[in-house]
């Protein structure tokens, strides 16, 4: 960062003023951030994301954070001697597994994010989907494709999907200037916990809050028309185009659920949904407050 | 409970009306409950305590719950293959130990209490001391008495004591009719977590909220002037008498920190502090809403 | 009540908790009570009804009381040497009669209810229909059936029917936690007072407030399909069934206006309307907070 | 009033504007009016006082009315065949007498004032001292002077004096723009009613509300230094002078309690207290909004 | 005004009470006043209008003042050596001219009105259309009729017409009890100022505020069916009749824009629009608070 | 500014985040800015100051602007053919002069600032000291030193000094998110206007608002211990030191009133007072949001 040190204070002041139109655009708006990937592992990136969120709060944005579990869940399961099995990309989750996942998500990762934000000068509050029944969930079955045309639905335990988001707690906290940090654990109707994909949770919450933007921090630069051809990078994509790219197979693999989350967020009332590269320094600020923007934006 | 079934509806109605003066006494008041011991282990007692809290909420009380960790922490440490060492009754707590304690407290026990309360019809919100810097803590040294007169202070790691309670988050939640459920984890100034005795945390929070009452659920009937003589049970005790009984050794062992918590709560502005027997059915309701009361009350 | 004294504190606590689902059901709801009959004469019943209302208030209900005149009006008229004449069940009411009725209703009965409630620990406020034009009324003519098919409408003086309920005063008082106690006097547009049937006033007020329930305290157990056959008692009745029973003559005499009041309350937006036996101890609490319920409920 | 008809609209407009400084002086202020005497008997005066109060309300004053019983109580007692006995100017008041007094005050006079005010376009609410325990009272003994120096205190029944005014109900109503009209009935601690001198009640309420002014409508022009000498009329009197005139006997008879009420009102925080002539047309408006003023003002 | 001095205080009090129905009619209502003409020149009239406005405020009206420029603008232009040219009755307004107009309107006339009102005891706040973009305007072209049928539109510089009224600032000030005084300067989108006809501005503001009344102070008695025949004066006129009188030429010259302003105000939601004679003493009070009324009222 | 264009978006994002601690420091604080000098003349500087203020607003500061008159007053006086005479540095100000000054300040300069700010996306409201009696002033006499020891006080007309600042209007506007822009015109008690030194007005307003900071934009770099020696520049100065430098003559000439304004602001409760160089680009942002700071800060 030696470059920055060479920049004069005068130029820095100009740069701050240059950001004004972007700051004005998002003033008073709710922005939902899915925090995950490398930005949760690399210490420097971690601290940058935290600062970005604090800055967003201070320039008048209402940020809401949903985090994933990163490698911590798998690592803790290992410590407990639990093997991890996946079916169609979903972790088979027995009662003990979801218990450990919840402990890691709500009792370790969430807590660490909250603490880091507070140390930087906001009032963050950690939540899970159980708090005030924030995320009501039910069981999600895995879809298994055997050779035939039929899709089998397989019970893989306590993997959930969102049934309802109860927004009053989030809004009560936002109205009192707290920063909500939410672990993607859903409350089942029979006392059970569900582990839910954090991208989907973020999309559902963005929709329920009628957020201005959903920002998904990922470990890719965004969406390419042709993944092999780096020059085919897409900055802005309509919902229809996105669906076509999924159908044509150009959006594939781990990108599919992310794009589906974006589509769902837009369908349920979010303004825009962006897949941004969490491996970049200050990616949130770059996306929101500079002319450059980063990543791929999905719009209506 | 077959007895109750024999009681006529008319008598039940009379019993409800009989509770009116007690309900009036606590209407609108804040009551802090330390939830722990057998009442956290026995399924029937668990459910009863939860119902008691929900009833308290519905008859106009502002309940605040602080819970301990029960045997879960030790059991999880064992699963991780961590041996547990105690010095002067305090668990030696290295970084990994406090991490596991936090995961168990905030990610398992707290979450379960929140979920049970919500299923019974209130809006509970789980918190730890890190949320909005609710509990600021610093390291507590163990006092070790060797044969000599001197007391040695030994560093036993991430065992904390409360430095400051920040009440705004609790009050914001109470004002919006949520039931706060708090794990006794403290936030250190250098990002570290501290495990703190839940009785002390409850006492500090009761004082900071200027609560009407602090109720410590324990596994004893209360305080005896002479523990051997069951007829010497004490219903009400002044602060001075309590101090004398500690000095004379009549209050001893595990009861000392509980009585000290009561004394501290009174010193910092709580109205009354009670040690009650969590092994009794509906002990909270018995204490608050019947002429009998239970346990030992410490008053100014 | 010696039975109750034999019930242990533990059982009493259980009974309180047993009431929780009922308390939750009515929390924050408005319930309109027509207070009359024996429950206004018998000292023990009087005091029980008052306690029931105070308990309702403390467990979160918004109770509104409308009272009748009981035998007091007739007795005072007698003291004044006024003979009482009835036409079709309605008291012929000259100017002096309505004056005395108003004095008895607003200056004696209302005042006594208010005072009793206040002594038990709520803040009751006595109102008549004149306060802030709460009840706007006009003259009601008596229907006289001579032998022929024709119905004659006879002017019997200052007997009124409700033209409009102005709810702001009631709501302003409820919002500030007062218990409104209302005498069934209507304000005419030309300065005159009208005496109005209290059941009808209660029904109109329940409708205007969109109350959860209207409870009419009567001196009967409720409605029978066949009044002679005690086994034909009806716990729940739809509006249509009620109309049929009136047409068929199974509901007759003094029960007709009560059932009509219930029907009108339902039509104008009240949730449920119940005729309950005010001669029972704690009949309101029995009805609301026990599984037994009492009396006959008229529903949509 | 034919004079007024000759006044041009232009002059009328000028007169309205002339009142501006007086209107500004009392804007937002609480003024307590004791309504009694001829102004309660003469139909024309009655209606004028009502209009005066409504005008006061519309130009921004917070008026509070306390009324006496006038000749109605005696007349109703007569109808009931109760003889009226006085000791030291106070009515001997048995249980039946206070009951009739309360019925007349709260159920007839109060109700009529409320209705008249409402017809003129405000929202008046009738209260007695029992509403929300507005006036807590205890028994007042009559002082009997036999020839000797000693004063005997004689129990004359349910004649009360104010023990405490509970202002929240009055303020809640004023804040919601209602006009409170209060009957001088006090609530005793043992369920009994007390009849209280309305001048004293008005003085106590003025003090409790920290009113700007107490206006006592009387049937005299005010206070004279020498009652025989009409030229000795006093427009403004200090508390000390008033006390001297009582001691010297220049203020005597029925004027003494009125002046004592004024002195008490000033002592307890009322700004000014005025004895004004209720037999004059629009005496309240004359006093408040013209340069003339009327009656005698007692000041600190 | 010697007449008024002969009127007794009693008659004055009666006159105040006589105004009550008018005061009630306008209580809490917004009334927009276009202040201009002789009432801005004659010192006595000036002071009377100011007092009228202050009285309006104190009897519960929400007055909003829009003022014209009177002869001051022309006189200042002269001092600057600027000749004034008119095309179709509109002043040709170059950049310097609009600058001087704005200085005179916002920096002299507005300021003087504000100061006078404040001295009389209200809190007036001076605004121009630039404050919080209160009046957004664009250029208005002059319509020039040469002999032919065609109308030519001629650019005469910075003469504007209203594009949008932003009411929040006015309402925020009214809600806090300030009296807004507005200069008819509009803000263009490219930083330019526009001078706008004050009658039109008043009409637009009355409409945007959904005012109860628009009062245009003029130097005529109002509208005549036949201007030559003083007996043909019109007190009330419908919109349709007004349009007919314009088409027939009976409303002509300077009266046309005033009547058009009235018509526009009614179209955009104002209750009534009145042209009143500002040369009369206390014309505003005469119009609002006496049975006489003055001027011509245009209604739907 | 080509340099800035070379800075990468990544570096720009870092620079924004770097400003976070400064943004946090001033969040929610009131900062009073005296706007004058070159920054009011140079078009580029003008626009920069406006953007700086808008940015301040959007990052949570409550800015209040007081502006001077710059060369405009003198230039308009010239146009009017008024010669300008100064006594002891104060303009001799007759009635016509103060009239023109007010027109220029309130009707031209203020209006332009308001318009520029609004175009950049805030809601600015122009005020003068007359609005809601914001600045109450009285005449200031010039101090003339002849050769002798005596100081003569000379009446120079409508030059004023602040008697009282009425803050409610400013706070009402700030609470509703408006940016107040204030012309330094004072309201005299006898309807007269006073022209007041804008530095002093800013200091008085900063004190009355208990502002966090007063920023005086000047045409110098700040204060030097020895004006000749550029290396003696002072970044921070205590009140005592400042007084000494005035007494010793090191602070002299036009800098004296500025330093006196700072001292007065501190005395009346402002946190800090800074003299900053308005000739620098983005001087406000430089001062507030970079580590460099500029100008001289006077502290307690």
Automatic annotation (TrEMBL), chains A, B, C, D, E, F:
Pathway: Amino-acid biosynthesis; L-arginine biosynthesis; N(2)-acetyl-L-ornithine from L-glutamate: step 2/4. Its EC number is 2.7.2.8. The record marks 34, 258 as: Transition state stabilizer. GO terms for cellular component: cytoplasm. It is an enzyme of class 2 (transferase). It is found in: Cytoplasm. Pfam families: AA_kinase. GO terms for molecular function: acetylglutamate kinase activity; ATP binding. The keyword ATP-binding applies. It comes from the Bacteria. GO terms for biological process: L-arginine biosynthetic process via ornithine. Residues 29-277 form the Aspartate/glutamate/uridylate kinase domain. Substrate binds at residues 69-70, 91, 195. Its main location: cytoplasm. It catalyses: N-acetyl-L-glutamate + ATP = N-acetyl-L-glutamyl 5-phosphate + ADP. Keywords: Amino-acid biosynthesis, Arginine biosynthesis, ATP-binding, Cytoplasm, Kinase, Nucleotide-binding, Transferase. Catalyzes the ATP-dependent phosphorylation of N-acetyl-L-glutamate. HAMAP family: ArgB. Belongs to the acetylglutamate kinase family. ArgB subfamily. NCBIfam families: argB. This is Acetylglutamate kinase. It comes from Megamonas hypermegale. The lineage of its organism: Bacteria, Bacillati, Bacillota, Negativicutes, Selenomonadales.
């Amino acid at each position: 960062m030696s470059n920055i040190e060479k920049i004069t204070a005068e130029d820095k002041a100009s740069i701050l003023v240059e950001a004004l139109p972007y700051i004005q655009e998002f003033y008073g708006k709710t922005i939902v951030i899915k925090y995950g990937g490398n930005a949760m592992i690399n210490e420097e990136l971690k601290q940058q994301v935290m600062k970005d969120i604090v800055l967003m709060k201070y320039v008048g944005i209402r940020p809401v954070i949903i985090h994933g579990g990163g490698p911590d869940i798998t690592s803790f399961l290992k410590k407990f001697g639990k093997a991890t099995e996946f079916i169609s990309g979903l972790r088979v989750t027995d009662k003990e597994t979801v218990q450990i996942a919840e402990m890691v998500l709500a009792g370790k990762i969430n807590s660490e994010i909250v603490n880091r934000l507070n140390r930087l000068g906001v009032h963050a509050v950690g939540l899970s989907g159980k708090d005030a029944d924030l995320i009501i969930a039910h069981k999600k079955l895995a879809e298994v494709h055997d050779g035939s045309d039929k899709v089998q639905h397989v019970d893989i335990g306590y993997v959930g999907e969102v049934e309802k988001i109860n927004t009053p707690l989030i809004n009560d906290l936002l109205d009192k200037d707290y920063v909500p940090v939410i672990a993607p654990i859903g409350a089942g109707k029979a006392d059970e916990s569900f582990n839910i994909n954090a991208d989907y949770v973020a999309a559902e919450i963005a929709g329920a809050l009628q957020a201005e933007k959903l920002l998904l921090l990922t470990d890719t630069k965004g969406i390419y028309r042709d993944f092999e051809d780096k020059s085919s990078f897409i900055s802005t994509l309509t919902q229809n185009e996105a669906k076509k790219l999924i159908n044509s197979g150009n959006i594939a693999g781990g990108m599919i659920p992310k794009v589906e989350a974006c589509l769902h967020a837009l369908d349920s009332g979010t303004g825009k949904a962006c897949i941004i590269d969490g491996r970049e320094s200050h990616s949130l600020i770059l996306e929101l407050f500079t002319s450059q923007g980063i990543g791929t934006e999905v719009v209506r």
